[in-house]
Amino acid sequence: MEDRTLHQLNEHFDSHLADYRSRCADYERREVALMSAQEANTKSIAELADATKGLVEAWNAANALQRLVKWTAGFAGAGAILVWVTDRLG
After folding, report:
1. How far apart are CA 82 and CA 76, in angstroms?
2. What secondary structure letter does DSSP report for 65?
């Protein structure tokens, strides 16, 4: 009876050991896949940043031009009123 119990415990232990080794191999494969994906993402982000660098500069230039137009529009409006008043009075 003891031999049978010992044999069953040994098989049970071997089964757990095989499961553990299988999980370790799975974790190692996942880690390699994760590292590869992370490296690819880092490379893609760098490429995207380089590709959109000019676009960001153009956007900033357009915003500066928009602010200038808004600022000068106030002077244009005041000038139009001044011209209208001088035409009416003069």
Report:
1. 10
2. H
CA pair distance 90, 64, nearest whole angstrom: 39
Mean pLDDT within 19-48: 95
Neighbouring C-alpha atoms within 13 Å toward the C-beta of 61? 6
On the question of pLDDT at 87 being above 80, the answer is: yes
Residue 1 DSSP SS3: coil
pLDDT digits (tens, 9 = 90+) for 35-66: 999 999 999 999 998 888 888 888 888 899 88
Distance in angstroms (rounded) separating the CA atoms of residues 19 and 25: 10
How many whole angstroms separate alpha carbon 78 and alpha carbon 62?
25
Distance CA 48, CA 61 (A): 20
